[in-house]
């Protein structure tokens, strides 16, 4: 009796079902299209709702308000500004003030963090305990508490102008801020800036040459002192050749306040100190963890070569630990920049206080102002991340 097979002969390709859902690629496209359409519908509803609300409140949309007169003053400006300036100028002033706090805060937080992080690994019991106490106290208190403490309990408690604390007879500290001598650059002082740029380029070339020379001959070159001589000496000589068109304006007490010189606002000082100390505690833990991640054999190898502990830490341990530290350091730098928005609590005129605060209250352009503020912080974060990623690639191990 013959046996028959109902299926197709062996090796015959099986045709796919005619349903579109049987094709995985087609299903993926349909799902993505549905999600994209839903997202577009949601955005459209939000835009329509926003336009309807603006129309009902008689608020014009768009960015034309940036060319209007601001009409309010700002007590710290790094560029020329007055009450007759535009909202765009006020935005620039707030952005520069934010960048000033961020840059100064990052520098001091890094210094504090490295010193305390290394101190936590010190063999000296007292140094180790003090650094541990610093980390535990700073990291476990809210940042806003740090800001208010330095502003209300320290700087606001300073004496009035007539009883100012004097440092070297030229720097005065009181409850209105810190007054320091101010450099006034006259005509022809631009030659000093050109000389400084030339000196910076020369330092970069010198460092590259010194590294290549040491790799070739094994002889070190005093790059640090030579670089300092270039950065200080070359601009000084250029200014001297131009007749030294730079004068110093010292602060002087006149009446109930100081006149002349440069003034550092107590709000700026409080915010910078708070951000530096607070972020420094987190950086200290990053530094400690990075150093601990380096093999103990590296320290032993450095000691066997006759390097002292301090020199071994600077030349052997820290360069290797940086490969571990840079990524979390980037996060701390970004956090410090964004945390500067807490300045609104003490009245420091940074981006949020000037633009998302005063400007928003006067114009009512909430959507545009929030979008601009978000864009500014996004650009700052992306630029910071790009720089740190570049540096991370420079210090990373190169496989051969």
UniProtKB/TrEMBL annotation:
Pfam family, one: BPD_transp_1
Location(s) in or outside the cell: Cell inner membrane; Cell membrane
GO MF annotation, one: transmembrane transporter activity
TM helices/strands, residue ranges: 29-48, 60-79, 99-119, 140-159, 179-206, 227-248, 268-287, 369-391
Superkingdom, taxonomy of origin: Bacteria
Alphabetized UniProt keyword annotations: Amino-acid transport, Cell membrane, Membrane, Transmembrane, Transmembrane helix, Transport
Annotated GO biological process: amino acid transport
Domain ABC transmembrane type-1 residues, every copy: 95-388
GO cellular component, one term: ATP-binding cassette (ABC) transporter complex
PANTHER family: AMINO-ACID ABC TRANSPORTER PERMEASE PROTEIN YHDX-RELATED, MEMBRANE COMPONENT OF AMINO ACID ABC TRANSPORTER
Protein name: Amino acid ABC transporter permease
Native source organism of the sequence: Methylopila jiangsuensis
